[in-house]
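Re: weekly structure request thread

Next one in the queue (550 aa):
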Amino acid sequence: MQRLLLIISMALCLGLNVLQARITYPHQWQQLPSHQLLDKAQSYSQADHLDSAMLCYSIVASRLSKDNKNEKHNYIKALYSIGTIYFLHYYNYQKAADVLLLAKKEAETANDSVILPFIYNSLGALYSQFDQKDYSQTKHYLKLSYRYTAPNTFSADMTMFNLVLMSIKFGFYQEITSEIEDYLRHHPEPNMVTYVCHSADDEFHGKYDKAISEIDLSLNHVETEDKALKYRFIGCLLFRRCQLLDKAGRDAESLAEARRYEQLVREHGFMEGLPEIYWQYYKFYSSRGNQKMAHENQLRYYILTDSLNAITNVTYINKASFVLDLQNAQAEVKIQALKRERLTQILWIVTIAAIIFMVLMLMLWRRNKQLRERNQALYDQSLQQLAIIDEARKSAPPVQAPMPVEETKPETDNEPNEIKAEIEPSLDVVDHALEEVFQRVKAVLESSPEIYNEDFSLSKLHVLIGGNIKNISRAIGTYAHCDLKTLLSQYRIREACRRMNDVEHYGNYTIEAIAKSVGVTSRTSFVQNFKRQTGLTPSAYLKLARNKQA
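Done, posted below.
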């Protein structure tokens, strides 16, 4: 039922979104110029509305013009943006590679030096995820990106940042020293990337503590208006710091930094960072001899890597396929604006009402399910307790009948006038005597049917077991920690449970009849004591007992 409700809700929401996209947005956005669509797409992308961003980019990508240089640039930029979304958000690496390689081909043909460095940079980062063994493509595209990037630009900063981190990851740091020197020459003032460069040089020469300090300075200089990009920079630096702490032998700090990086990745949805952190966990625990944790994180790494490489988001790909072929869909978007608005409002109202109804039904169903499970657990617990008590009663030795109490004759004046010392019984003797009295009380309560009479009292119990009535009351208080009324109620409720489970003899009894059969005349008192002892009401308990016998 829960799965059905969720599927219906998702289908309604998806249907509404698809209809909204097919009816409203393409017709309106096709009228906008390409540069406005690119600006709109960028704002949607920053707000994490990726479906709307893909729609805008795809409209621009359908406007390929070989004669108009600006339109050609916009077309290449749209392709680059689509490929980047496939890479960083949908994790469809094959689709991202196809689109980015097409953008690279068109940019190289048009000699578009503005967008080409960004394409090379994305391809380098993509191949670092696509092929973990062969880093030649990563190195090739990142070096090309830096070569085509103008100095003192954000593109140069981003390219050098990726180039340095990838060179450390894949071990080709010595092959990019000329690019690092060129970058530092154009950036005499320290910034985030210069600190990363210095950190890499310090690590290469084994100065791990100094390299960590450089990364700390780099973290203090992360400056970008794009929040998503800012958190990606911070995540890369945190992971870099984790690796340096590990190399420096600062194990506890390294593990804490790794967990901090994992938290950042999960909070901001950078799922491509999780395999790195699991591999870092694997190396950490493996080097410390904790094979169990090492194997667990190694398994997580391979599972997550395979899943990221195989992700196919059907919803987004269907939308992308639709918007990349807008020429064929134009005939379907000629509905009047008023009709579109009314239909959209009706769909919204129906969807919201359906979701609210399903949520309420789901909450009610879950609540009833939890209540049934709780009642069943309490009922089973009661049965177990009854079984344990019955087994203990069978295996217990029989309690001997009380010895008749002889009355002592009072001393007379005719007896010898001797000084008699009073002998006080010891505490052990008193305790043993009280314990014997309590065992006799239990024997009566467990075996005598008279306790189920309404008028059963302490005086009648005294008649059954003999002895001193005060000692009886004292023994009950000492060993049962309650008075006779409470103890008697426990045995009566226990017997009521047995009779509720005995459908053969008491199947036609009502709750009131069962209560009276065990000596309880007050329904309110019976319900209160029953629930206090079993956790269930008599009606709920009786229902479970009948269901079990059915």
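Residues 427-549 form a domain with the Arc Repressor Mutant, subunit A fold (CATH 1.10.10.60). Residues 1-6, 18-24, 311-334, 401-427 have pLDDT under 50 and may be disordered.
Next request, please.
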